[in-house]
Amino acid sequence: QVQLVESGGGLVQPGGSLRLSCVASGSISSIHYMGWYRQGPGKQREFVARIFSGGATNYADSTKGRFTISRDNAKNTVYLQMNSLKPEDTAAYYCDAEVTNTARSTLVVWGQGTQVAVSS
């Protein structure tokens, strides 16, 4: 089994910063990408950022220039550094990863989410 566990969410004032972490564990042979989505109350799930095995990154326009995604391959961990946070960044943030497991199956795995609230 493969699982993702997010951490680092919390309550922060507008303009503040948070760093989210997501660690993948289990029967993993390789990870092809890791990334982040978010979903605010009453909103649809929104893509945030993704980092591929070769190091290429994608960002949503709403977070470009404020958020930075990075990865520690040795720890199977992805990070999302969030700066200049705005109230509209308030959401549950979910980590996802495309992994190949030890049974040679490739699948997308999702974490349980971590809550980010940006409010004064």
Low-pLDDT stretches: none
Number of strands: 11
What is the strand content?
Answer: over 45%
In sequence order, what are the helices and strands, one letter per element? EEEEEEEEEEE
Structure, explained:
The protein is 0% helix and 61% strand. It is mainly β and 120 residues long. The mean pLDDT is 96.
Describe the structure concisely for a colleague.
This protein has strands spanning 2-7, 10-12, 18-26, 28-39, 46-52, 57-59, 67-72, 77-82, 91-101, 106-110, 114-118.
Compile the SSE list and pairings.
Layout (H helix, E strand, L loop, with lengths): L1 E6 L2 E3 L5 E9 L1 E12 L6 E7 L4 E3 L7 E6 L4 E6 L8 E11 L4 E5 L3 E5 L2
Parallel strand pairs: 2-11
Antiparallel strand pairs: 1-3, 3-8, 4-5, 4-9, 5-6, 7-8, 9-10, 9-11
Give the key terms.
120 residues, mainly beta, 7-stranded mixed beta sheet, 4-stranded antiparallel beta sheet
